Amino acid sequence: MIEIEALTKVYGPARAPAVDEVSLYVPRGSVFGFLGPNGAGKTTTIKMLAGLITPDSGRVRLGGYDVARQRSAAMAQFGAVLEGSRNVYWSLSAWQNLMYFGRLKGLRKAQVAERAEDLLTDLGLWERRDDKVGGFSRGMQQKVAIAAALIAGPPIVLLDEPTLGLDVEATRTVKNWIVEQARELGTTILLTTHQLDVAQELCDRVAVMRQGRLVADLPTRELLARFRERDRYEIRVEGAAPPGFDAVARDGVTTISVRVSDPIEVYEVVERLRAHGAVIESLTQVQPGLEDVFVSLLNEPSHAA
Ligand SMILES: Nc1ncnc2c1ncn2[C@@H]1O[C@H](COP(=O)(O)OP(=O)(O)OP(=O)(O)O)[C@@H](O)[C@H]1O
C-alpha cells in the first residue's frame, strides 16, 4: 500500500509548485493510474515516492514505512522503472542483468535464477536470455528493465510510462503481466501513462493531476460514471432525417446525435421522429471513454479534488 500525505515540491522560489499538497492512498493489490498532461507533476511525485527527490513538505509511506524516516525499510518495499532501459546494462545479457540486480537486492543465486526464469518467460524473452541487451529492440529493453526492477518480487511497483514505445504485442504482454502481478500476487502498482486506453483497461483507480494538483482521484468506473450525464445517444434512421434534427448522412443511413440530461428525453426524440414517419434502425448510448473524461477534467475551471 502507498500512502501520500500533502506532498509538496517547489523547484525554485519563483516557480509554482511542481507538486502541490497531493494526498493519495493506493491499497494493496490495486493498479493505480496517475494521469495528467505534460508537466503536471506526475514524474516528480513518483520520484518522491522512490526517494530520488526530497519533498519540501508532506510525507510518503510505502508498505507502512516512512520514506524519509525509515528509508531502507521503505526502499525494500518497491521496484521502480522510471527511465526504462537506461537502468539496465547494455553490455550484459538479459540473464546477467537479472542475476546482477537480484544479487544486489540480497537474493541468493538460486532464488534469482528461479525468479529470472519466471519473469523472462512471462515477458516472452526466455529464448533471448543470453543475448546482450544493447542489441535488443526498445520494447525488449523495456521488458528487461521491468524484469530487473521486479527481480526481488517487491510488494510495490512504480512504473513511469511502462508501455511507451512498445508495439501492440509487447504492450499486450506488459499489460497482462501488470494485471497478473496485482491480481495473483497482490502487488500494488502505480503507473503513469499518457495512453488513456491503457489506463482505462488496467487501472482500478485513476488520479488526474493538473499543474501540480489533483483534479480527480476515483475508481475508474466511478470516474466514467460521473461523466455519464454528458452521454450522447445516436439514433440511426433509414433515409433522410426529418427537418430540425442534428443529423449526419452516410451510405444511405442517417445518424442523429442527441445529448440529453435525462434518458427519458431520448424516447421523446424517438416519438418525434416516428411522428415524422422516420424508420428507426437502432438506438445506441455513446459512453464516454477515459479520454473524453480526461479532456473534460482538464478543461474545467481550476479547483482542488
Ligand atoms: N529537475 C527539475 N528542475 C526544475 N524543474 C523541474 C525539474 N523536473 C521537473 N520540473 C518541473 O516540474 C513540473 C512538473 O514536471 P514533471 O516532470 O513532474 O511532470 P510530468 O507530469 O511527469 O510530465 P510529463 O508527462 O511530461 O512527463 C514541470 O513544470 C517541470 O518543468
UniProtKB/TrEMBL annotation:
Membrane topology (UniProt): Peripheral membrane protein
Listed GO CC annotations: plasma membrane
BP GO annotations: response to antibiotic
Pfam family, any one: ABC_tran
Compartments in which it is found: Cell membrane
Alphabetized GO MF terms: ATP binding; ATP hydrolysis activity
Domain of life: Bacteria
UniProt keyword list: Antibiotic resistance, ATP-binding, Nucleotide-binding, Transport
Record flagged with keyword Aminoacyl-tRNA synthetase: no
InterPro entries associated with the record: AAA+_ATPase, ABC_transporter-like_ATP-bd, ABC_transporter_ATP-binding, P-loop_NTPase
Domain ABC transporter: 2-236
PANTHER family (alphabetical): ABC TRANSPORTER ATP-BINDING PROTEIN (PTHR42711), ABC TRANSPORTER ATP-BINDING PROTEIN NATA (PTHR42711:SF5)
Family: Belongs to the ABC transporter superfamily.
Name assigned to this protein: ABC transporter ATP-binding protein
Lineage, top ranks: Bacteria, Bacillati, Actinomycetota, Actinomycetes, Streptosporangiales
